[in-house]
Amino acid sequence: MSQISRDDVAHLARLARLTLTDDELDSFSGQLDAILDHVGRIQSVDVTGVRPTDNPLKSVNVTRPDVVVPSLTQDQALQEAPASADGRFAVPQILGEGE
């Protein structure tokens, strides 16, 4: 028995402002129905006594440690900039004033 009809898919497409062909409506209704069937099977599995896990891999912080290193001075950073003003990069305005 189908859980999602072609009309359901057409309605969802309209809500999402998608234009689908008749072939796409038929194809997607079958695909979505198969997905819902699989979800239903997963939901029917008895998990009584199974402890939930948050992450079975027990990942740890994999970032590198912070190390202070010399960096560019303000003048060096601005040296290759196409334009600068008051010690900052100057870029074209993209929004109106006061926005």
TrEMBL record:
Keyword Phosphoprotein assigned: no
One GO-annotated biological process of the protein: glutaminyl-tRNAGln biosynthesis via transamidation
The reaction(s) this protein catalyses: L-aspartyl-tRNA(Asn) + L-glutamine + ATP + H2O = L-asparaginyl-tRNA(Asn) + L-glutamate + ADP + phosphate + 2 H(+); L-glutamyl-tRNA(Gln) + L-glutamine + ATP + H2O = L-glutaminyl-tRNA(Gln) + L-glutamate + ADP + phosphate + H(+)
Molecular-function annotations in GO: asparaginyl-tRNA synthase (glutamine-hydrolyzing) activity; ATP binding; glutaminyl-tRNA synthase (glutamine-hydrolyzing) activity; transferase activity
Gene3D superfamilies in the record: Glu-tRNAGln amidotransferase C subunit, N-terminal domain (1.10.20.60)
Nucleotide-binding in keyword set: yes
EC numbers, comma separated: 6.3.5.-
UniProt xrefs under SUPFAM superfamilies: Glu-tRNAGln amidotransferase C subunit (SSF141000)
Keyword annotations from UniProtKB, A to Z: ATP-binding, Ligase, Nucleotide-binding, Protein biosynthesis, Transferase
Family matches, as InterPro entries: Asp/Glu-ADT_sf_sub_c, GatC
Top EC class, one word: ligase
Family: Belongs to the GatC family.
Assembly notes: Heterotrimer of A, B and C subunits.
Job description of the protein: Allows the formation of correctly charged Asn-tRNA(Asn) or Gln-tRNA(Gln) through the transamidation of misacylated Asp-tRNA(Asn) or Glu-tRNA(Gln) in organisms which lack either or both of asparaginyl-tRNA or glutaminyl-tRNA synthetases. The reaction takes place in the presence of glutamine and ATP through an activated phospho-Asp-tRNA(Asn) or phospho-Glu-tRNA(Gln).
NCBIfam families (alphabetical): gatC
PANTHER family noted in UniProt: GLUTAMYL-TRNA(GLN) AMIDOTRANSFERASE SUBUNIT C, MITOCHONDRIAL
Protein's name in the database: Aspartyl/glutamyl-tRNA(Asn/Gln) amidotransferase subunit C
Name of encoding gene: gatC
